Amino acid sequence: MSNTTGQLFRVTTFGESHGPAIGCVIDGCPPGIAIAEGDFAHDLARRATGRSRHTSARREADAVEILSGVYDGVTTGTPIALLVRNTDARSKDYAAITRQFRPGHADYSYWQKYGIRDPRGGGRASARETTMRVTAAVIARKWLRERHGVEVRGYLSRLGEHAPTGHDWAAVEANPFFWPAAGDVPALEAYMDALRKSGDSVGAEVTVVADGVPPGWGEPVYGKLDAELAAAMMSINAVKGVEIGAGFAAVTQKGSEHRDVMTPQGFRSNHAGGVLGGISTGQQIVVRTAFKPTSSLRLPVQGLDVDGNVVDVITTGRHDPCVGIRATPICEAMLALVLIDQALRHRAQCGDVGAVSPRVPGGG
Amino acid sequence: MSNTTGQLFRVTTFGESHGPAIGCVIDGCPPGIAIAEGDFAHDLARRATGRSRHTSARREADAVEILSGVYDGVTTGTPIALLVRNTDARSKDYAAITRQFRPGHADYSYWQKYGIRDPRGGGRASARETTMRVTAAVIARKWLRERHGVEVRGYLSRLGEHAPTGHDWAAVEANPFFWPAAGDVPALEAYMDALRKSGDSVGAEVTVVADGVPPGWGEPVYGKLDAELAAAMMSINAVKGVEIGAGFAAVTQKGSEHRDVMTPQGFRSNHAGGVLGGISTGQQIVVRTAFKPTSSLRLPVQGLDVDGNVVDVITTGRHDPCVGIRATPICEAMLALVLIDQALRHRAQCGDVGAVSPRVPGGG
Amino acid sequence: MSNTTGQLFRVTTFGESHGPAIGCVIDGCPPGIAIAEGDFAHDLARRATGRSRHTSARREADAVEILSGVYDGVTTGTPIALLVRNTDARSKDYAAITRQFRPGHADYSYWQKYGIRDPRGGGRASARETTMRVTAAVIARKWLRERHGVEVRGYLSRLGEHAPTGHDWAAVEANPFFWPAAGDVPALEAYMDALRKSGDSVGAEVTVVADGVPPGWGEPVYGKLDAELAAAMMSINAVKGVEIGAGFAAVTQKGSEHRDVMTPQGFRSNHAGGVLGGISTGQQIVVRTAFKPTSSLRLPVQGLDVDGNVVDVITTGRHDPCVGIRATPICEAMLALVLIDQALRHRAQCGDVGAVSPRVPGGG
Amino acid sequence: MSNTTGQLFRVTTFGESHGPAIGCVIDGCPPGIAIAEGDFAHDLARRATGRSRHTSARREADAVEILSGVYDGVTTGTPIALLVRNTDARSKDYAAITRQFRPGHADYSYWQKYGIRDPRGGGRASARETTMRVTAAVIARKWLRERHGVEVRGYLSRLGEHAPTGHDWAAVEANPFFWPAAGDVPALEAYMDALRKSGDSVGAEVTVVADGVPPGWGEPVYGKLDAELAAAMMSINAVKGVEIGAGFAAVTQKGSEHRDVMTPQGFRSNHAGGVLGGISTGQQIVVRTAFKPTSSLRLPVQGLDVDGNVVDVITTGRHDPCVGIRATPICEAMLALVLIDQALRHRAQCGDVGAVSPRVPGGG
């Protein structure tokens, strides 16, 4: 079930970068959620390429067609199929690399696994697939918000060596980087312009948070909330690391420093990132994800072809110099998809009732 | 299915820290693997407490009884049930905290989720559960070694601020820390002695690797090898972060630096950590895991009780000052469990045949 | 995962009878199977309505569009999405029953479950969904045939009180009933003409068989081959009973009569229907399925509306007087889908090697 | 996951007939159910052999040990492991058939699948495994009763050619056959005595019903309530057929006869067996299951050995002349396990709220 995520809110995606379409089927969606085809546009635009010079020039319409599961404007509980036609695929860009393995790409591993691969635009391994994650998450976020008051947000917390000099949620949507400090943006733009000109790429880090998650979501011991978040983030193209709360900084922390003290007024800190024992505590859920630099560079590199010959590989397709720039909406989507799934699983086992007392406010 | 890991090599664990027993059921194990009850002792001893002064004083026999699935000394393909009786549980140590929530512990989140919890020794949230992960992995490792020549190893790569000053696999098993640099051990011992005396704890980082993994294991896009490794590691108690290959260091790398060049003689580097597009490349699989400092301290801390009152919490049970010290065998176990599961899934879809040519040696 | 069937060859279907489209996603398909859009037409025509006066007059083009997972004419191992647009839906026929519950229909149970239903043409509960089962099974049957020499066939073994007076496979495809005795067909036609004129409907029984299944497919104890066949058949609209081999006749059999004697030349009988202990024996797999008479009748009947009022229900849409008539291809499809899934699961656990000796020919 | 049944109330069983123990792990059980080790005795005694001369003479203590998941007398939401030691296994009875394949048995199919089998007492293929189904269902039945008022009951509805001459629930528990007509019992006893003396065996049919199931349980289209009931029953040893409601009798019914008319006072009939479109209607759930005659007979029969030689097979172990006699509690157990699983799945997707109006009383 490698193309399905979730156990109860099950999203199955399909489609190749340069195939006729991409899409998904959502199975297990609660009935009664109001959904229209226009509801997807905002989130898809945030993820889309072609909106600034800092992302790939590919410009897709990303028009979502609802094929099933919605009647009279609301979800019916039956599977929701969502379809997006590919409209701006330029497969000829890939003719040269049809028989080559690009270093750092999935070309070689797909070839080794399946004995065949669709080389056009990266095929199934393209980040185009994440379009459907964002699409499916629109419905998940709506349910989380309306039923539980849960809000999922995110921002770019590292762009190469750059770190934000401040944090202002209002700034995040006002620049093409999802950067939380408006004053840093000119420097980032200059940095990206230089990088693009050089033909090289760079890594990035995205932070996503969820506010309003009630205590009790998450299933120990193998379905822990943080375990599923780690898998969800790592399943995104180009991700090499995931942290919850203090993350790797916990390695050098003392226990007396790390443990978050609870008071009747709330937690005093949030090193846990909102998860203890794999179950939400009511605090903010905090997840950080590391993105590698894309390997599709104009800079030539030595590679191999399918006959084992050494060749010079030059990638001429349209690519992002930093895939992390567009990754914030994708990480948000995965966080939302994990949360709705855990919410439904919690409801299955423990019922619809709220958390028991005493309930500590999720501060800290 | 929160207490089951794996899709085809399915391990279901059960048991509380101070209950009568812990155990597991392995379903889907290939038939014909030679297994005897004595085969588990070595790996369990590596994970066990009570073997040095640097871990908890609890000393369990960890005797494994094979209840089913093995006949005439070999696995039969039917479910293998393995049972370990708890023999050194001291539940009275926990009387004081039966109605208290320890900061940084799963006490509060279990209570909120289920409305009830077994407080004795942490109940299900205890690291005692990981005994069965190591036990089940003994069989997985045997199959991986015998059938595919895959070897899984690991070491402690950070102990608080300490980093190894060298790397020698031979050193790892010769000290109680799984530390790869023999010369550093006296300093670590002094550090841990001081820490234990202070009543505090500290975090750590474990690195595990797998050699000999053929290209082709891993299922895009949600069952990627690295995604499942991330979930597997994050499902271990106290883990706050997971990295594959370059991990978070990839954030500041350039693409020209990160991409691993392939030559007919092998890969020139391994920033990918052996995984591209979620599929193994034939290189060494490299996973790093961050462990937080345990929150069970003798140092008093403010907490809440089940009635919402503020109380002073002092943990008097036997605890590890650094849970990461014993975590190397557990991380190895999870790596092995993910690998065997992916191996079987690959065989299901793509058959038993080896990888196709050209095949790049897994160097780098 | 209620709209997904199979564990490793996973087929997820979606779509309502009168929605814009129906479709499916096949995940886990082995790579390298040659598939073209024209390959589906033959099997879909066998299932389709509107081909004889004995089935519903609805006439769909049933044109299959391959959206993903096939490159250069062969499957790539990535998810295969197949789409069929609905072209002949007449939703206005259903206006009258939008707020009524038809007796014997899923109207009431869907309403109770979800609090909403799509009444057009039965919505998701329509047999239209089975189009995608037949479509997906085209690929399964191809793999089963090419790789294992397995052939799946079926016929109508009861039409109301009528039973075949002989058995000739050649006859089955030569009449609109899938009836194995050509001489009986005129009587069946007269019977169906009278039934249709009366406005009533009748039940039927379908028998499907698989030849060439090697011994060893099936997973005890809850994934038994026969258990999954039972679920697969019972998941088809209007099915009320499933038998394997002797089926209910085994109730009055003696053990000395039922047990199938093995000889080096083959089995002497096949009361088992090709399955012992949930695992195939190498004999012919035999499954019989009982279809109820459709409840969509022109004959008025008392029903209830959504406000609880008693109303007269008259179904004016286009319906089959005997849904069993078109059910043979659907039962074949489900048999094929179960077999390929079990074949892949067997390969995962036990490898690609053939059965061990002694191997009894599958006669009897 | 062949040894696990259920998606959310997951029961994994293990153990061979003559191994040291059998057991199960229940994962996903709602917290807060009061359970003690003595709660299992009543249902296990109903299933046990050795209680009358009409069943096998094997007499097991069937003492259930709770290993985990229960604290302070109630379930905690963590996995519940239940263990039953085998105490009356006589493996020497099976020495003769260690290298033989008994006709009608799983000996041959297990051998072909796994290349190895545990021949003692049928190994994993023994009906001994069903002990754990009954054990697990004790908890399921308790939850169904206490939370939803659902009662599961059953009886033997055919014993070879014999059919009950009346129906009295009070009679069922008062005879060793679960027979619903007390007056028939002497004739059945004579019949069974003669059968046992002859060394032969006979088939049987069991009917189980559930009262009080609310409308709305069941997940179309592949997780239909009736589809999962069919799989559950067919997964029991020796089952060859399953019917819901009218079952195979629907083949000869007219639609005007089959469809169950709804009135504000209730349904007028129950040909549907309580399920429409795969979802419960609120009527009584009715399932009938056909059991084949056991193939373990004292009457010699020709068979094969592992070297392919023709041999005379005589089964000398202790066996039931009619396995159906003890099957009523097992069928009840499977019905209960399917119901609790569907109840939790319904709660996950649609919430805890009751069914919507209008609600038809479940009469008929």
From TrEMBL, chains A, B, C, D:
It catalyses: 5-O-(1-carboxyvinyl)-3-phosphoshikimate = chorismate + phosphate. It comes from the Bacteria. Keywords: Amino-acid biosynthesis, Aromatic amino acid biosynthesis, FAD, Flavoprotein, FMN, Lyase, NADP. GO terms for cellular component: cytosol. GO terms for molecular function: chorismate synthase activity; FMN binding. Its cofactor is FMNH2. Reduced FMN (FMNH(2)). It holds the Pfam family Chorismate_synt. Its EC number is 4.2.3.5. Pathway: Metabolic intermediate biosynthesis; chorismate biosynthesis; chorismate from D-erythrose 4-phosphate and phosphoenolpyruvate: step 7/7. FMN binds at R124, A125, S126, N237, A238, G277, K292, P293, T294, S295, S296, R318. One of its GO terms (biological process) is aromatic amino acid family biosynthetic process. The keyword Manganese does not apply. NADP(+) binds at R47, R53. Gene3D superfamilies: Chorismate synthase AroC. This reaction introduces a second double bond into the aromatic ring system. Belongs to the chorismate synthase family. Homotetramer. This is Chorismate synthase. The gene is aroC.
